[in-house]
Design goal:
Its cofactor is FAD. The chain folds into two domains: 2-186 and 344-397, FAD/NAD(P)-binding domain, CATH 3.50.50.60; 194-335, Elongation Factor Tu (Ef-tu), domain 3 (Beta Barrel). The chain contains 13 helices and 21 strands. The chain has helices spanning 13-24, 40-44, 71-76, 79-88, 107-120, 172-179, 198-206, 241-247, 267-277, 283-288, 293-302, 315-326, 382-397, and strands spanning 2-9, 29-32, 51-54, 62-63, 93-95, 100-103, 124-126, 131-137, 140-145, 148-157, 184-190, 194-195, 211-218, 225-233, 237-239, 256-259, 328-330, 334-335, 343-348, 366-368, 376-377. Bound molecules: dihydroflavine-adenine dinucleotide (FDA). Dihydroflavine-adenine dinucleotide binds at residues 9-15, 32-35, 40-41, 44-46, 50-51, 131, 158-160, 163-164, 168, 170, 172, 342-343, 370-372, 381-384, 387.
Length: 398
């Protein structure tokens, strides 16, 4: 039987951070990962440059049954704290858009940095290691698995969400949480592309690869959400940042509304002015000045004004076109699921956890961090910031 002060299961963003912090505080720490390499999602994130945080981290940009829960950890370990760590390791970054910070070096440099912090703390990292059972053992825990029996005083579950099973995602934390009687918020794919039924899908598939700045909205009243970013047509439907963002707020059988001319303040006035100034111009040519030609052609065809000049368009036709361009109502058939979702919404209900330490309230010594918890960030570095912050909080408390 091996003995540790702290065992962390899952060497992803949150687990690496937590293990390093706990080790540096003098604990004997074991970090268990079932993949052969740590930090798989960090490595592929941000197109290989890891969008590691956001300059504008706010609690409203996280979805959770308790919208206040994440505030404590996020305020105690900020985006600036992570940047300080990066700078100390000689890493640099740049802002792409909307406060999103990307590493100038490859994403692997972020994993190397976290592993270096783990080494500083003397953390033992076990790769390719399976844990088959977890049970209470007095005031600690006993783990059984490929490393034999392990006893630990503190156990941290950090196996992330269900997204991208082929990269090693598992429901391990959710299962162990259930075993300990903890409440779970149903898990769902989030930050995920939409699929559509046949007609819409055929229209979208023909435009596959076309991208357009748009605003996409869903919900009503207090639950209304709107994002202004790029939208991407795909073979199966819609993707791109605007769609990924809204997918986290969409509920099945409801509509999304797309404005493909979000940059134009007054579309009816713009179209009327174009008709006056350039009556001989084809409607598709006018639209093509604000969007890719393929999209302009497809929309005018859909509106049955393909080839029509602006002069021939009645006020009614312009109103119909405006509606189609600015208030395109679509009913997604579903999403591309966990295979394509960037994150998992839901997870261990925050009601079970101490918001300062991530310790399970009625299971002393058990901690749950990262994406496995019911805290889901927007696209743009928020999910890593939650992983760093919750990992850090548990690392100080174990
Ligand atoms: P994470 O998934 O990082 O780590 C969990 C670890 O546990 C994994 O190493 C896994 O193999 C391991 N594990 C699972 N089951 C196990 C078991 N039974 N035993 C042992 N180990 C087990 N976010 C962001 O902020 N900016 C970005 O740029 C991106 N980009 C991005 C791209 C893609 C393609 C995806 C899929 C996701 C992102 N994300 C993102 C989201 C981000 O990757 C995610 O939210 C964090 O990695 C979550 O950190 P965790 O440590 O909680 O889980």
């Amino acid at each position: 039987m091996q003995h540790f002060d702290v065992v962390v299961i899952g060497a992803g963003a949150a687990g690496l951070m937590c293990a390093g912090e706990a080790g540096k505080r003098g604990h004997r720490v074991l970090l268990i990962e079932h993949n052969k390499k740590p930090g798989a999602k960090i490595l592929i994130s941000g197109g290989g440059r890891c969008n590691f945080t956001n300059l504008d981290v706010r609690a409203e940009r996280f979805i959770s049954r308790n919208p206040h829960f994440a505030k404590s950890a996020l305020s105690r370990y900020s985006a600036g704290d992570f940047m300080t760590m990066m700078a100390a390791h000689g890493l640099s970054w740049h802002e792409k858009t909307l406060g999103q910070l990307f590493c100038d070096q490859k994403a692997g440099a972020v994993v190397d940095m976290l592993l270096a912090e783990c080494r500083k703390g003397g953390v033992q990292v076990a790769l390719g290691a399976r844990t088959t059972a977890v049970s209470r053992d007095g005031d600690g825990f006993r783990l059984t698995g490929s490393m034999g029996d392990i006893r630990t005083a503190k156990l941290v579950l950090a196996t992330g969400g269900l997204s991208i099973p082929k990269m090693g995602a598992s429901d391990f934390t959710h299962r162990i949480a259930r075993q300990f009687g903890l409440p779970l918020v149903p898990a769902e794919p989030a930050l995920v592309p939409f699929t559509f039924a046949q007609d819409d899908r055929a229209f979208m598939a023909a435009l596959s690869g076309v991208s357009q700045p748009a605003t996409v909205a869903t919900g009503a009243g207090k639950g209304a959400m709107r994002f202004a970013e790029n939208l991407l047509f795909t073979h199966r439907g819609l993707s791109g940042p605007a769609i990924l963002q809204i997918s986290s707020y969409w509920t099945p059988d409801t509509a999304i509304t797309v404005n493909l001319l979000a940059d134009v303040d007054d579309v009816p006035a713009w179209l009327a002015a174009a008709r006056q100034a350039r009556p001989k111009a084809a409607a598709a040519t006018i639209l093509g000045e604000r969007m890719p030609k393929r999209l302009a052609d497809a929309l005018t065809e859909q509106a049955r004004i393909m080839g029509a000049t602006m002069a021939t368009l009645s006020n009614k036709a312009l109103a119909r076109l405006t509606d189609m361009l600015t208030a395109w109502r679509l009913y997604p058939a579903g999403t591309e699921g966990y295979a394509k979702a960037e994150v998992t919404k839901g997870g261990v209900d925050t009601a079970a956890l101490n918001q300062k330490t991530m310790e399970v309230k009625d299971q002393p010594g058990l901690f749950i961090i990262g994406e496995a918890v019911d805290v889901t960030g927007w696209l743009g570095g928020y999910n890593f910031q939650w992983a760093w912050a919750s990992g850090w909080a548990a690392g100080q408390a174990v």
